[in-house]
């Protein structure tokens, strides 16, 4: 004696429509959530290998591909951004430090802004030495102007 409940067409249609609506809302929510995460990362890696230490003599070495100055002085090795903090032009060396050819900003040898429209000083980046002995810059890690990489002595 089993009782069978008969489902009317109208009730079946209502349940089907409700299931389709819920499925549509869930599907759209999932698509919108997925759209917030990029499929590809277009940024270059933050750590870049610059080359062997002997490639960087005393003074300033400009690396045009990385837009960096590698400064080798009594403190050691340091990496200074060559990107002007005003509009992103590439600065060049001058007698007293650095000069932006686009809008005339001037920077001291330590990257401090001296003159012009640049709102901030030039940025210094952290340096390290890879296992192969090559110099590596971390463009994701800003440091103070006084932070330098000690140059290992030969034969030590």
Topology:
Layout: H1 9-35, E1 47-52, E2 59-63, E3 68-73, E4 76-81, E5 92-93, E6 97-99, E7 106-108, E8 113-115, E9 124-129, E10 134-143
Antiparallel strand pairs: 1-10, 2-3, 3-4, 4-9, 5-6, 6-7, 7-8, 9-10
How would you explain this protein's 3D organization?
- The chain is of the alpha+beta class.
- It has a domain at 47-143: 3-layer Sandwich (Rieske Iron-sulfur Protein).
- It has 1 helix and 10 strands, in the order αββββββββββ.
- A hairpin with a 4-residue loop joins β2 and β3 (68-73).
- The radius of gyration is 30 Å and the shape is elongated.
Helix content: 10-25%
Sequence stretches where pLDDT stays below 50 over 5 or more residues:
none
| Proportion of beta-strand residues | 25-35%
- Characterize the overall form: elongated
Terminal CA distance: 95 Å
Please report the number of helical segments: 1
Largest pleated sheet: 6 strands, antiparallel
- Name given to the CATH architecture of the domain at 47-143: 3-layer Sandwich
- Fold-level CATH name of the domain at 47-143: Rieske Iron-sulfur Protein
Task: Provide keyphrases for this structure.
elongated, 17% helix, six-stranded antiparallel beta sheet, single chain, alpha+beta, 10 strands, 156 residues, Rieske Iron-sulfur Protein, four-stranded antiparallel beta sheet
């Amino acid at each position: 004696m089993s009782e069978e409940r008969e489902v009317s067409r109208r009730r079946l249609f209502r349940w089907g429509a409700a299931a389709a609506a819920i499925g549509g809302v869930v599907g759209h929510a999932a698509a919108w959530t997925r759209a917030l995460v990029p499929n590809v990362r277009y940024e270059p890696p933050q750590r870049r290998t610059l080359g062997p230490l002997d490639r960087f003599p005393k003074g300033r070495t400009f690396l045009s591909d990385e837009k960096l100055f590698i400064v080798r002085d009594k403190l050691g090795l340091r990496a200074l951004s060559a990107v002007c903090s005003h509009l992103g032009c590439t600065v060049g060396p001058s007698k007293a430090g650095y000069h932006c050819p686009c809008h005339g900003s001037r920077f001291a040898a330590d990257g401090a802004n001296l003159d012009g429209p640049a709102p901030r000083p030039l940025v210094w980046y952290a340096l390290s030495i890879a296992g192969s002995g090559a110099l590596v810059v971390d463009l994701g890690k800003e440091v103070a102007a006084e932070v330098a990489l000690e140059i290992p002595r030969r034969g030590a």
